[in-house]
Write a structure and sequence with these properties.
Strand content: under 5%
Low-confidence stretches: none
Organism: Paenibacillus lactis 154
Shape: globular
Radius of gyration: 21 Å
Keywords: Acyltransferase, Cell membrane, Membrane, Transferase, Transmembrane, Transmembrane helix
Membrane topology: Multi-pass membrane protein
Pfam family, one: Acyl_transf_3
InterPro entries: Acyl_transf_3_dom (IPR002656)
Mean pLDDT: 93
Distance between the termini: 23 Å
Structural class: mainly alpha
Order of helices and strands: HHHHHHHHHHHHH
């Protein structure tokens, strides 16, 4: 399965996920700037945005699959190798986006002292830029890994299935039911027994990635999850359309990371690529594998830099664009943003200092 310490299906999932993240951020403007849900531009943006919603869950699943298989010998070593290399780019990119936003986007007259105070507050409260929340979330999970990894090693496959089933009920199914009830009755439901902290966050996706990486599901369960994933890819944009028509504004019930359709999309995609691993290893030649590995290794850095590239390009899909114009605009701009981000990362990687300060040594 593993060649040159690279796992091809994991690399391909990373690449798909970073492209999907760029799609999510690029299409957000059209989706939030118009309530004309029958326009071509809205439907193209909704369609691409919907089928890209697997990105964040899959990133957490990959992190769990890779991280929970490592042997942690000491807290100090773990923090030095895993946590600090995330804290450094969090600080760096919070500063970059903070400066860009204050002095270029909103043309602030804030002096240096005021900026430092404002920046410090925003850094602590995750208010510097929209996509940096992921770093806060993954750092928080990484801080639990020295303990969680011991828990995982002590669990049997049956134990992990129990955890994941309970997490699915508490975080995915309960959320879907409560959202549906609210949209039907405008009343929130609160079932106290469902408030179980260990079963309520991204940690579930983290452990799910570990489980799917290390264990093979029974054939019937695998086929069911795979087929539910396919259905969810088609269902999400349609369900979002009808929910938005009902609400009068964009309704993100089926967009969320804990949406039931996003869950099945993410699991189905992970299973699909894992099943294709033997064929991928045999059919993909060495040069293509090296390119896949290079892009995969750069995915974290691309995540950090791509919004800056997108803002500088300022390319947008017009709300009144035709179907062909909207689709072409989206594909071209996504391709340009991805290509520039990747090339920029590789150029910056030529300097070890820049790589460490900007990307925590990744690239």
């Amino acid at each position: 399965m593993i060649r040159n310490n690279r796992i091809i299906y994991v690399d391909m999932l990373r690449i798909l996920s970073i492209v999907a993240v760029i799609v999510l951020h690029y299409t957000a403007e059209v989706l939030t700037s118009t309530n004309d849900f029958n326009s071509s531009a809205w439907w193209i943006s909704n369609g691409f945005n919907s089928i890209s919603r697997f990105a964040v869950p899959v990133f957490f699943m990959i992190s769990g699959a890779m991280m929970l298989r490592t042997n942690i010998r000491s807290y100090r070593e773990f923090y030095a190798k895993r946590v600090i290399p995330l804290l450094i780019p969090l600080l760096t990119w919070s500063l970059i986006y903070g400066l860009y936003n204050q002095y270029y986007i909103i043309r602030s007259s804030m002096n240096a002292y005021e900026f430092v105070i404002d920046f410090g507050f925003r850094l602590l409260t995750d208010r510097n830029y929209v996509h940096l929340w992921f770093l806060y979330a993954i750092i928080a999970i990484y801080m639990t890994v020295p303990l969680i990894s011991k828990f995982i090693r002590s669990c049997s496959e049956r134990d992990l299935r129990y955890y994941l089933l309970l997490w699915f009920i508490v975080r995915i199914a309960y959320r879907f039911i409560s959202d549906a009830v609210f949209r039907a009755t405008e009343q929130y439901i609160n079932i106290p027994i469902m408030n179980i902290p260990f079963f309520m966050g991204f940690l579930g996706y983290f452990i799910l990635g570990h489980y799917l990486f290390h264990y093979d599901l029974p054939g019937r369960a695998k086929n069911l999850l795979y087929n539910l994933g396919i259905v969810s890819f088609f269902l999400t944009p349609v369900a979002t359309y009808f929910a938005s028509m009902h609400s009068g504004v964009l309704d993100e019930m089926f967009y969320g990371n804990y949406s039931i359709t996003v869950f099945f999309m993410s699991v189905g995609l992970f299973i699909f690529f894992k099943e294709k691993e033997p064929r991928l290893s045999e059919s993909v030649n060495h040069k293509v594998q090296k390119l896949i590995g290079s892009i995969s290794k750069a995915s974290f850095s691309i995540y950090l830099i791509h919004l800056l590239v997108e803002m500088m390009l300022s390319g947008r899909t017009e709300v009144d664009a035709t179907l062909a114009e909207a689709a072409l605009s989206l594909l071209i701009n996504i391709g340009i943003i991805f290509a520039i981000s990747y090339v920029t990362v590789k150029v910056l990687n030529l300097s070890k200092t820049a790589t460490y300060i900007l990307f925590g040594g990744r690239g």
